[in-house]
Design goal:
With about 260 residues, the protein is mainly β. Helix content is about 0%, strand content about 45%. It folds into two domains: about 1-15 and about 40-160, 6 Propeller (Neuraminidase), CATH 2.120.10; about 165-260, Lipocalin (Beta Barrel). The chain has one helix at about 35-40, and strands spanning about 1-5, 15-20, 35, 45, 55, 65-70, 75-80, 90-95, 110-120, 125-130, 140-145, 155-165, 170-175, 175-185, 190-195, 210-220, 235-240, 250-255. The radius of gyration is 18 Å and the shape is globular. Its EC number is 3.2.1.18.
């Protein structure tokens, strides 16, 4: 399933629509687009830019969860949910910017692009771009304890270990390890780095893997989740990078988790 936005910024078009296409052959062919706005409404919603998840644990085992962000003034983290494998969708959790639907100033609370992952206890942890550097030049992290229906402020914190230059970043939970990738720098989009946590994000290992030293931008990480022993050894990253500008190329890398080749 691929979820995308049509006419998000209302540029020479209206209204905004949340769209969905499906593939039953690993992306070789795709269904005709479905307009989900009939179910979700026409509020602007930009999914991702990473991936959605299907919950493997209770509560709401099997639920599809796709999170994204809103408009420039009406920004925030918003999630859409499906309990029947994508046939029907409804609006779930919202973590709205402050002040909401109003122009923002520097240091306002303004959560933006995000990546959800499911933790082993069934909660959903969402790693969020801190658009206006509220409280720190680092990532916002918030958890949903009810399968994506709500994002309580009590479950929000700022991860000072994940310094960030305001960018879309990637996160992945694999075999009990939480991985995070971003340009690890407070002000510039450089130094794309992979970090990992053995404590579901409560702490991060001091070791880290530099993937690209130079200009680097948006990134996403994923893995193959078959029963194959080989698939357990690797994760994959796709990211923007360049020598003078971070948008020069898009690169893809296969990362051996145990240092082999």
């Amino acid at each position: 399933i691929l979820i995308y936005s049509h006419c998000f910024h209302l540029y020479h078009c209206s209204p905004a629509s949340t769209m969905m296409v499906e593939s039953l052959d690993d992306g070789l062919s795709w269904s005709r687009p479905r307009n989900l706005s009939v179910q979700l409404g026409v509020k602007e919603f930009a999914p991702g830019p990473g991936f959605g998840i299907q919950k493997k644990h209770h509560p709401a085992k099997g639920r599809l969860v796709v999170c994204g962000h809103g408009t420039i003034e009406g920004d925030g983290v918003f999630c859409i949910l499906s309990d029947d494998h994508g046939k029907n969708w409804y609006n779930g959790a919202a973590l709205k910017s402050i002040p909401y639907n109003q122009p923002k100033k520097a240091l306002d609370f303004n959560p933006d692009e995000c990546q959800p992952v499911e933790l082993p206890n069934g909660s959903i942890m969402i790693n969020v771009r801190n658009q206006n550097n509220y409280h720190c030049r680092c990532r916002i992290v918030v958890r949903s304890l009810d399968g994506g229906l709500t994002l309580p402020v009590d479950e929000l914190f700022f991860d000072y270990n994940l310094v960030d230059p305001v960018v879309a970043a990637g996160a992945l939970q694999k075999n009990g390890v939480l991985y995070f990738i971003n340009p690890s720098n407070e002000k510039q989009r450089v130094n794309l780095t992979l970090q990992w946590s053995l404590t579901n994000g409560s702490s991060w290992e001091k070791k880290a893997l530099q993937i690209w030293h130079g200009p680097s931008g948006y990134s996403c990480i994923t893995s193959l989740n078959s029963s194959s022993v080989e698939d357990k050894k690797f994760i994959f990253a796709i990211y923007e990078k360049g020598h003078s500008s971070y948008w020069e190329t898009i690169s893809f890398v296969k990362i051996h988790l145990y240092g082999g080749r």
